[in-house]
User: Which sequence fits this backbone?
C-alpha cells in the first residue's frame, strides 16, 4: 500500500493516524509496539519535513507500508536533501539535548533501519512483534 503526503508538519498527525491504523493489522502488536513505531515514524517524518525539505514547501513524502503477519515495514521516500547516517553522532544523553535525538530514537525503537540516499531517498523502518531470536 502506498500513501503520499505533503512533507510539511501540518500533515504529520494525519500520517501518524494512518500508520496507527495499519499497526492494528499486525498480529500481536502491543501498545508498546504501537508507541515505539509511531514515535520512530514521527521522528522520521519530522526529519524529512524539517531537514530534507528545508526551505521547500512543495516537497512530497511517499509512504509504502508492507504488512506481514508479525511485522510491519514502513518505507519513506522523498526527494529532499540526503542524510549521511554514517556521520550522525550519538547524542550526549547526560546533557538531555533538545534536538538531534531523532535518528538515535529511530534506531532505538525499531528492529531494522535501512537508508539509501538518492533520487528518491529511501528510509525503511521494520518492527517485529516476535524477535529474530525467538524464531
Assistant:
Amino acid at each position: 500500500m502506498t500513501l503520499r503526503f505533503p512533507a510539511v508538519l501540518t500533515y504529520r498527525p494525519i500520517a501518524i493516524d494512518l500508520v496507527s491504523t495499519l499497526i492494528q493489522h499486525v498480529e500481536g502488536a502491543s501498545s508498546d509496539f504501537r508507541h515505539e513505531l509511531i514515535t520512530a515514524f514521527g521522528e522520521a517524518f519530522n526529519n524529512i519535513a524539517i531537514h530534507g525539505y528545508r526551505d521547500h514547501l512543495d516537497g512530497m513524502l511517499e509512504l509504502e507500508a508492507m504488512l506481514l503477519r508479525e511485522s510491519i515495514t514502513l518505507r519513506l521516500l522523498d526527494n529532499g536533501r540526503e542524510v549521511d547516517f554514517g556521520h550522525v553522532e550519538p547524542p550526549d544523553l547526560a546533557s538531555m539535548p533538545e534536538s538531534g535525538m531523532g535518528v538515535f530514537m529511530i534506531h532505538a525503537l525499531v528492529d531494522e533501519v535501512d537508508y539509501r540516499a538518492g533520487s528518491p531517498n529511501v528510509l525503511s523502518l521494520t518492527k517485529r512483534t516476535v524477535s529474530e531470536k525467538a524464531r
